Amino acid sequence: MGRPRLNTAMKLxxxxxxxxxxxxxxxxxxxxxxxxxxxxxxLADMLERGELDGALVSSFALFQMRGARFAPGVGIASxxxxxxxxxxxxxxxxxxxxVGLDSWSLAAxxxxxxxxxxxxxxxxxxxxxxxxxxxxxxxxxxxxxxxxDNALREPPGDHYVLDLGEEWQNFTGLPFxxxxxxxxxxxxxxxxxxxxxxxxxxxxxxxxxxVNGPLPPGVDKNTAWCYLTECIRYDVGDEELEGLKRFYExxxxxxxxxxxxxxxxxxxxxxxVEVVGDAASKEDSMSDDLCFASIxxxxxxxxxxEVSPVEVAEAHLRRIEALNPGLFAYQTVTAExxxxxxxxxxxxxxxxxxxxPMHGVPYGAKDIVETAGVLTTHGSSFHRDNVPREDAEIIRxxxxxxxxxxxxxxxxxxxAAPVSINPHYGTVRNPWDTxxxxxxxxxxxxxxxxxxxAPCAIGTDTGGSIRNPxxxxxxxxxxxxxxxxxxxGICPNxxxxxxxxxxxxxxxxxxxxxxxxxxxxxxxxxxQDVPVPDYTAGVEDGxxxxxxxxxxxxxxxxEVDSEITAAFEAAVEVFRALGAVVEEVSxxxxxxxxxxxxxxxxxxxxxxxxxxxxxxxEGYGEDVRERLEWSFKIGQDDYVRxxxxxxxxxxxxxxxxxxADALIQPAMxxxxxxxATLTAQMNGRDVSxxxxxxxxxxxxxxxxxxxxxxxxxxxxxxxxxxxxxxxxPWRETDVLRVAHAYEEATPELRxxxxxxxx
Length: 758
Prior knowledge:
By secondary structure, the protein is an alpha/beta fold.
């Protein structure tokens, strides 16, 4: 892994504990760093004396240091049992009178003080003990605290043990942050932060190597493995920062920390393309940052009142005004309505009525989704003036979640093809290369998310229409199990195969948006009354031990461009490195799924369109009229037989997924082709783009099972490639967990913005 080059070697202090190794193993031997190992309490003193540039010091020490800043996103934390912060008790916690404290850790000792007082009402006398000689036989002590490796190897014996990581989580519901990379005033910058963040990513990937190397005396491999992979967290995100702030507040209340501390980061590394040009102002840059923030981050900032929903909506509307004329992502922009909804969200949040992570977050809605009082053309000539009286159910649910609609995104005519070249309204252009298609039929939604014109959008998917544009635009698209999201109020394509769902920039965001829109709708004939889980609760659980399937049969073993094959093979290796069990398997029923596809979609599509077609066949564009002509020819008997066959194939597919966490495939066999030719490049040859997506995306519509696409990199021309992750029926949580693990392991594949608007 490449390392940022610093101007001079940094002096970094670290601790002699096993839990620090994943943060430091990648720094060892780096000429940019001089590592110094000392107990945590000593490191804080060295840092304040200027003997170190930065150090892995306790959160308690951080609170005492004026002007100190810490590297964002990296540290040592836990949520639940930690195993290495243990209070060994002779008597119940509420009757403790004299407690020995391990003097090496200021955070753990003061955590014990706070916890015993707040949870048990105990304020014992605290005395220092030698951490290398546990005072098991000192009968003057009612309890003693051990931390780090000393706690890992010390058995309970006759004592009962309180795991303070677990106790803190039970007490506050939050993680506890033990240590952070803290820098003295004048030290630490964006390069230093990037160095430490990259070291963390590399080190976490080398835990197996750490466990198989020298371990502290008395700590076996199994204990070390479980401790480093199940107990310790190395990512310090919003939830960890909440835990850090809560610890500080309690310390201040007890007079153990000075007032006035606020978290201060060293400069964030530049992870995105910056706005270029002399005219690019700081305000423009901040506005663009809001436009490329995730739902998760926007929702957190809005909840904490760090940014207003109105600011967020205005930033997106400015960007839409600037870029939509060249991209044509939005058919209709509802600027006034968006500001009104944003103001209402702001007022509710300021009054303590926060509805959840979508509250105040903007979105776009595909123009086949009905919106009360807002033009909804269905991308057709027949509905140029259609203004629905009622919202589609998916819109109603987003309104209930407090989301803010920015406008209606462009669709291919009647959502009937994968190109978003609409003969009545215009062509959507790809933000990565505006001479190329975005895919379809949810092309406007895909372009809007990719170009920072919305953090999320509604798409629909009958044969790939969420996943195809998400894949070609470098985004995330997720169709959940058929029946999970209501179709009521959405112009039908083929109801047996239709899905509605989120288009976002991350898997976590897809889960957040899905949470808002999923659920049974008794007025939708295709809706299924199946309990809706928490889609983000287990998203960070990782894939170690997960069974991941690779099955070329599932897309008919059709040709894939060599650059995409290479990217897919690299993705497979990422999963293996994350501890997943990757297994290549076979599937015998791909062709049957594909054979029944037109036999079901054709009659269902033609049933809806027959009155319009009979009224004015010339009102359709050529490609949709051609689709209707062959659809009308499919007989009733063929349709009925295909519906019966589909049930059997769904059972076969469910059996295929039994015992597996996910199937991974290339989402598309090629990148987006030029608008002018619709000819894709495949291994140096020109290939027609027509239906090229169908083998990869269509089978998951035929089964109705969940499938998600996420960026897999870019090819030599800079165009996005994409990975598809599919799962068994109703197992959206597995798909999201697997996708999130891949995304977290490959940030370099998704941290650039498209050139449009840069």
